[in-house]
Write a structure and sequence with these properties.
Number of domains: 3
CATH topology of the largest domain: Rossmann fold
Order of helices and strands: HEEHEEEEHEHHHHHEHEEHEHEEHHHH
Oligomer: single chain
CATH superfamily of the largest domain: P-loop containing nucleotide triphosphate hydrolases
Largest sheet: 7 strands, mixed
Strand order of the largest sheet: 3-4-5-6-2-1-7
Strand content: 15-25%
Number of helices: 15
Radius of gyration: 31 Å
Number of strands: 13
């Protein structure tokens, strides 16, 4: 164990800023000792003898400031804590000033303890949980995914990793590969005897099964994606057709500036709309305007650049003016994303009959909306969702079941399996086959942070009666 992991670490574990309550967490061999002398419990109790998962109220006397701070202490003794070390949580008032005083007081106790007490490094509590075997590497990485999750889908995916379901799938494949390698290793040991412990046909068949399982995991990773940064959704059209009002209505808040003056929007405005766990990054652009005004021209250039990165383009028309005229300045052939047509301001339509759409627009999903009455807004959300789930939007590059590191390790393990299959089909020696298979096993171990070479020896001795 490194010197750093022998240190006792402390940190404020709640977000910065004022709040009703906050937590300071301490982990390490000196976790209890460093607050024992400054903590005064409300009842007669000795911290040293407190059982794990118990709490006690009292106050911490900060000598440096001559102040008593009311706290609630939670004691979690090793190995039953998150880090598998002694852990103390100090729950107190969420004042940055009070938290700073408490943390400084804790750190000052290092002169009275056997080992160093210091501020934890970023992620060090989770790192210790991994190093001490509380969680594996995929679970450690899922902790950050949970913190960063912005939709229900992202949160569920991260929780699935944290509960170990991904690790179990990897472990299953790894066990199959280790078991096969154990048989191959045993066959090598008995190669001087006239005994065939495992045939090349069986080796090939089992390798094919392992290959399919890894391929299925990678395919599952691709199909379970939800776009992290949001589906780039551009609202596009002439000035004053109601793009800004439409964004405000969808978001149910005033995000974009709304004005009767055409061309109010001069810059790119973006916000996120969550529809059933899929995040749409709504982008309000400057209206199509052929004016020679310099500011307008610059705004239009930004709009054109934004269109290039769009996944979905919502073309907004005013229901009260000629759609054919509005369409003249929209170059449909230059649009690469999926198109949805919105006929806005339908509540102001003077005629009872709806306007007939130009032929060019009839092949796209169409919805009539009113930001005043709310008509068509839910239908628009439904069409947005169907556009993504129906496969019209390329969502590659979004977060999946596996992160980049895990996926890269899986791809390398698959490549090693393919090489192992090739060796088996070419009837190469069992030594070469085992060598490639060992590489695949080690690479699978990288996904969950294990070193697995020694597992093969364990399998050999537990799976075979070598001594008989």
């Amino acid at each position: 164990m490194s010197i750093e992991t022998q240190d006792t670490i402390a940190a404020i574990s709640t977000p910065s800023g004022r709040s009703f309550s906050a937590i300071i967490k301490i982990s390490g061999t000196e976790a209890i000792q460093c607050i024992k002398n400054s903590f005064v419990p409300n009842s007669h109790i000795d911290l040293e003898n407190m059982p794990t998962y118990t709490s006690v109220q009292g106050y911490i006397n900060v000598l440096e400031e001559q102040i008593n701070i009311p706290v609630l202490l939670y004691i979690m003794r090793q190995p039953y804590s998150y880090t598998k070390e002694d852990v103390v949580e100090i729950h107190t008032i969420g004042s940055p000033w009070i938290l700073e005083m408490l943390l400084n007081s804790i750190l000052s106790k290092k002169t009275n303890t056997k080992r160093n007490i210091r501020i934890s490094q970023p992620g060090e509590f989770t790192k210790r949980a991994f190093l001490h075997g509380r969680i594996d590497l995929t679970q450690a990485e899922s902790t950050m995914r949970i913190i960063r999750a912005q939709t229900d889908s992202e949160l569920k995916s991260a929780i699935m990793q944290l509960t170990g379901s991904i690790s179990k799938q990897i472990k299953y494949v790894q066990d199959e590969a280790v078991s096969l390698c154990a048989h191959i290793e045993a066959a090598i040991d008995f190669s001087d005897q006239d005994i065939e412990l495992i045939s090349i046909v069986e080796i090939t068949n089992r390798l094919e099964t392992i290959k399919r399982t890894i391929s299925d995991l990678l395919a599952q990773s691709e199909t379970s994606k939800v776009y992290t940064d949001g589906i780039n959704t551009i609202l596009y059209g002439k000035p004053n057709v109601g793009k800004s009002s439409l964004i405000n209505a969808l978001l149910e808040k005033k995000r974009a500036v709304v004005s009767e003056i055409p061309g109010t929007t001069r810059d790119i405005i973006a916000d996120t709309l969550d529809v059933s766990g899929v995040r749409f990054k709504l982008i309000d652009t400057a209206g199509i305007d052929e004016t020679e005004d310099i500011v307008s021209s610059l705004a239009m250039e930004r709009t054109k650049d934004t269109l290039k990165s769009a996944h979905v383009i919502v073309i907004v028309f005013d229901d009260n003016t000629s759609i054919n005229e509005q369409l003249r300045e929209i170059k449909l052939e230059n649009i690469t994303g999926s198109i949805i047509v919105v006929i806005n301001k339908c509540d102001l339509q003077k005629n009872d009959l709806p306007v007939e759409l130009p032929v060019e627009l009839r092949k796209y999903p169409v919805v009539r909306t009113s930001t005043t009455t709310g008509e068509g807004l839910e239908k628009l959300k439904k069409i947005l969702l169907e556009t993504v789930l129906g496969g019209q939007v390329n969502i590659y590059g979004s977060p999946s079941t596996f992160n980049t590191r895990q996926k890269e390790a899986l791809l390398r393990s698959l490549q090693s399996i393919l090489q192992t299959i090739e060796s088996a089909k070419n009837d190469e020696s069992y030594e070469f086959i085992a060598l490639n298979l060992r590489t695949a096993i080690d690479t699978l171990g990288e996904v969950v942070g294990e070193i697995t070479t020694e597992n093969i020896l364990d399998k050999i001795f537990s799976g075979f009666c070598i001594g008989k």
